[in-house]
Amino acid sequence: MAATTAPTTDPGALDRFLEKVEAAEAMPLWTQLKNLNYAEPNSRCVPHVWRFKDIKPLIVEAGSLVPIEFAERRVLQLINPGPKRSGFTTDTLYAGIQSVLPGEVAPAHRHVAHAQRFIIQGSGATTAVEGLEYKMERGDVLLTPSFNWHDHTKRKGEGDDQPMIWLDSLNLPLFQCIPVQFTEEYHDAQYPSKPIDVHPGKMPWRDMQPRLDAVDGPVAEIAYTLPDGSPTGFTMGTSAWRIDAGASTPETKETTSHIFHCISGSGKTIAKDPRTGEATTLTWEFADTWAIPTWWTFQHIAVAGDAPAYLLNVHDRPLLDNLRFYRRRLPSPIGM
């Protein structure tokens, strides 16, 4: 039988011991368990909506103050206001609003982070990815896989004279724990590219909307996929939703983090704090973007009227599936 030692009666012994542990660049686990073992997923973020009517004037003003040559990418990051300030939109997802003016080129570079774009407004711009250039059109989902050369151009005299504005989504928060993100700049403003009309990384809204409308029932969700049926990324997935006027989605509680964007229509999202049970209501309309953190119960409700609400959903479900981390619970009703 192993010998045991009675706790010391010396009141300063533990303090001296902890000083020796710290000097050895070690740490006792028993003092940190509460920061590692949570009863439930513990997001640093909160539900929040970024209103396009507030963000658009700012990104337009940035166009007059910040030359693309200085900015490289003229983007307003959507930073979650949670009390722990993750510095990103959710714990695992980053979103920002980017603009390119007529006559500008957002210069070619490549990076480890996976990126995708949703075109909010504008015409006459193109994006080039790994040597293939194609048009950016309203409602498009455009993919930029990891370490692909890419640039964005809006030539004068093509399309309208307004800024091209889109929603960027990247998996940048992951690189806080996996420090392998870096960027390489191309030696010219544009990577050599040839124009094409169809590309597997360009997913037009004109193709997705009819598919959503063909689904029976008041709510439909269809995933954007690659030609082989796989998600749009290893760590990020994308889907489109249709919610008929006056209809609501089922309540959902899962470990997935979400960024939603209103393509058209209006409505509200009710989200319930997993710790306190307190409900937060986010109202939204055209081009608004909002975040739902992991484990928050949420439900979307479209405004009653004639037209449905259409939403874009960027999420981290592929990451969780690939790591076998995904969990889902039947939530308690939001109203309780």
Fold and architecture overview:
The chain has 336 residues and is of the alpha+beta class. The chain contains 6 helices and 23 strands. Strand 6 and strand 7 (132-136) form a beta hairpin. The protein has one domain (48-329): Jelly Rolls (Sandwich). The longest helix is centred in the N-terminal third of the chain and has 14 residues, at 52-65.
- Name of the CATH superfamily: Jelly Rolls
Average pLDDT number: 94
Distance from N terminus to C terminus (CA atoms, Å) equals 54 Å
CATH-assigned fold name:
Jelly Rolls
Task: Throw out a few tags for this protein.
336 residues, six-stranded antiparallel beta sheet, globular
Précis, in short:
The chain is an alpha+beta fold. It has one domain: Jelly Rolls (Sandwich), CATH 2.60.120.10. It is 15% helix and 34% strand.
